[in-house]
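Thread: Newbie trying to understand structure tokens

Hi all, I'm a second-year student working on a class project, and my supervisor (Dr. K.) asked me to get a predicted structure for one chain before our next meeting. I've only ever worked with sequences, so writing a 3D structure as a token string is new to me. If someone could post the tokens and maybe explain what I'm looking at, I'd be very grateful. Here's the chain:
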Amino acid sequence: MMLAGERIYIDYLENGRNEYEESELNQIDIPEPAFYSIAYSDKDVMKEFIQKSKFVKGSYIDNDF
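---
Reply by user tm_fold:
Sure, no problem. This is what the structure looks like when written as tokens:
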């Protein structure tokens, strides 16, 4: 998607749970979690995207930082 001339890429990760240790997954109170990867070309545009998006109650974000 394009926002303010910058790009955001969202991919569904079919095997996303493979990226986490079982002990990490046990801390998530979601019976069947879905995993997505979000990449972006501009930090400020990504920040705005996250702030203005509506996520399902109980969603988690792992920013890898």
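A couple of things are worth pointing out once you decode it. The chain is about 20% helix and 20% strand. Residues 21 and 27 are 10 Å apart (CA to CA). Feel free to ask follow-ups in this thread.
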